[in-house]
Amino acid sequence: MNLSKRYEHSSSSNFVNAILRKVEKNDYEKLFEISNDVERISKTTSMPEWIVRELLKNNNIESVKKICENSNLKPKTTIRVNTLKT
Description:
mainly alpha; 6 helices
């Protein structure tokens, strides 16, 4: 909610709250109970199933899970200075 207030219009926090109220905790827990590995990884990491299947061709299931989880991390910010122009 605080993120929505910071980055969007103040009324967007109302929208976020409405969605969060709709999602129950047991709905979230059910995602991790999915028996199909590809579907579970896809839904818990917001990665398309076809990408998970492609990754499984060359990696084991734990590696694929970590790859998909890491793809959701915010990258570090770096700054590069062109000394020829400064």
